[in-house]
Specification:
homodimer; alpha/beta; 434 Repressor (Amino-terminal Domain); Rossmann fold; 3 domains; 6-stranded parallel beta sheet; 13 helices; DNA-binding
DNA sequence: CTCAGGACTTACAGCGCTGTAATGCAGCGC
DNA sequence: GCGCTGCATTACAGCGCTGTAAGTCCTGAG
């Protein structure tokens, strides 16, 4: 049988509660007592029973992490880091896949969960600002990512997309490219990443040509491949660089370019965004904006832990970096 | 306050235990009583408290899923399906990343977990057969994947790698290729996937040339790129097809080929293995063996649930299919 | 030397649920 | 009409922990 608190208490010659205090790092335990208790814990191999602790505390020790799809590399790598960090917060992470559908996201916020959750970290796609506003305020919520509007009504962790878009575009300009296309899912072309792109052009004294800010109409590589392909096929001159709002779009763009005989990066340099892990196995490997996922995870969990019902939403920013690879500087 | 079992009992005019029986679908409850209880549950919006149930039952409702890295697309997509299936089994899935390190994998099996686990599903890399054999038999364990040896001492779910390797190679042979190279992490060249490759060659009346069964020495794309690159650079004639034991190796191989002016698939057709999700954004998209991940997840969880200490290890096989894409049949 | 007050420790109830044993109550055979 | 059987239901202890209130012991000021 697994040792319990009482067993340790008996072995150490103290009360159950004192052992509990030691385990939970409470103050007001004499050093000598603590040592005796720790020795007993060690000797018996005691580990606390989480179910009992949660029952007594009225919490579950479980938080939910909701992403559109776990098998999308961006979310997988984010989830991986979230997992690492949650461990040090003492949380078990329950994963959910929403498919980006509003009803699935909403269900998580409103539904009574079989296991009461201590909080939710969600990367929303379908959720509206009202949905977030009308949620149960007793269930801590932290939002990730870039779904405009929602972030005003709950704690939010992200990176400075505008600045990142600017840095990515500046990299292209520094390589001497002057005819830089932007590719985003759109049609909402007010995306912050694209605004950063505009900032960079403006700062370089160039005028933004809104005709080469293309909306792909979707997030998949194929969407970018089709959009850019049609654009090229209709006789437009090829750009000498492409800034894509996500890595998938960048990869799709590279397909469209290469299939038409253009060389990347010699003819067209391409920058992506997200740094999804593909193990440097694509050709060419992708220059991209890499969000600091460890920081995102840590900030999100801290915010979740420290959230109090009724307090004002916090907006937190994690750092990012530009990772330069073959798609802008070439091979070798 | 959240309604409890007693609240429902009071509302329905029965005992707490009867409500419990209804909730848990027990027999011996009169239909009329059941209806009354269900109405009360519905009216109060009752949901069971998992922490309390687990405490009373001595289980935790949590299983662990351990994979080397969650941000590797293969494991991410497997984890995604595992999550879907676990829901219908009433399990919360606790994810773990082992990095493929034996000590991390072993720790999961031997360590006392803060939350007692109801079972572990693990994709082992470092674990030895002895480690598996000497584990705590009271903790149900199901192994996934292809770490030879371990599967004899615990329930195991996989696909028929040999048959799959054969099917993949046959596809290359059917395209008229005759000089088919095999690429595997090695140096253990008894890999079942490669044996399937040998089977296919033998069935076609071709002799296996063990000189073109190359060991990459690692799982990453770079490993395959370097291995194949060096082989080509040292003057060997290029094969007209490559069967790679994983998609990453296939992608690395494609890099090595294309960077040397060979066209895929015109000069060299390439088949991978695993069907990791890259959204059809690579160029060319990869022909590959796609394991049925839903089946794998379901079989694994069923096995976990039905496992009894001391019973003989079961070996379960999930189906697979060959997905034909550009890397063998070309573009368009 | 006394006593207030802080440091440390303990006893005990109770978190919400389930398992077990016990009880109630028909219907049945004799 | 009695005991028996088996279904339906109940009472209650207890899962292992933590919060609270109530101690006990010691120190230093008066």
């Amino acid at each position: 049988m697994r040792p319990r608190l009482t067993d340790v208490a008996e072995a150490a010659g103290v009360s159950m509660k004192t052992v509990s205090n030691v385990v939970n790092g409470a103050e007001h335990v004499r050093e000598e007592t603590r040592q005796r208790v720790l020795a007993a814990i060690d000797k018996l191999g005691y580990r606390p029973n989480i179910a009992a602790r949660n029952l007594a505390q009225g919490r579950s020790g479980v938080i939910a992490l909701a992403v559109p799809q776990l098998d999308r590399p961006y979310f997988a790598s984010l989830a991986a880091r979230m997992l690492d960090e949650a461990e040090s917060f003492g949380w078990i992470v329950q994963f959910h896949q929403t498919g980006g559908r509003r009803e699935a996201e909403l269900a998580l916020l409103t539904e009574r969960h079989p296991a009461r959750l201590d909080g939710i970290v969600m990367s929303p796609l379908g959720l509206t600002a009202e949905d977030v506003q009308n949620r149960d305020p007793s269930l801590p919520l932290v939002l990730l990512g870039e779904k405009a509007g929602t972030e005003h009504h709950a704690d939010h962790v992200g990176i400075d997309n505008r600045e990142a878009g600017k840095v990515a575009t500046e990299h292209l300009l520094e390589l001497g490219r002057r005819h830089v296309m932007a590719l985003a899912p759109g049609p909402r072309m007010d995306d912050e990443r694209i605004n950063g792109y505009r900032d960079a052009l403006a700062a370089a004294g160039l005028q933004t040509d809104e005709d080469i800010v293309l909306a792909t109409g979707g997030l998949r590589g194929q969407d970018a491949e089709r959009t850019l392909g049609e654009w090229l096929d209709s006789g437009h001159p090829a750009p000498d660089a492409v800034f894509a709002a996500t890595d998938w779009l960048a990869m799709g763009a590279i397909r469209a370019l290469v299939l038409r005989g253009l060389r990347v990066p010699q003819d067209v340099a391409v920058v992506g965004f997200d740094d999804i892990p593909y193990d440097l196995a694509t050709l060419p490997t992708l220059t991209t904006v890499a969000p600091d996922r460890v920081a995102i995870a840590r900030l999100a969990l801290q915010a979740l832990r420290d959230q109090r019902p009724g307090s004002d939403p916090k907006r937190l920013q994690a750092p990012f970096s530009l990772v330069v690879r073959e798609s802008t500087t070439g091979i070798g």
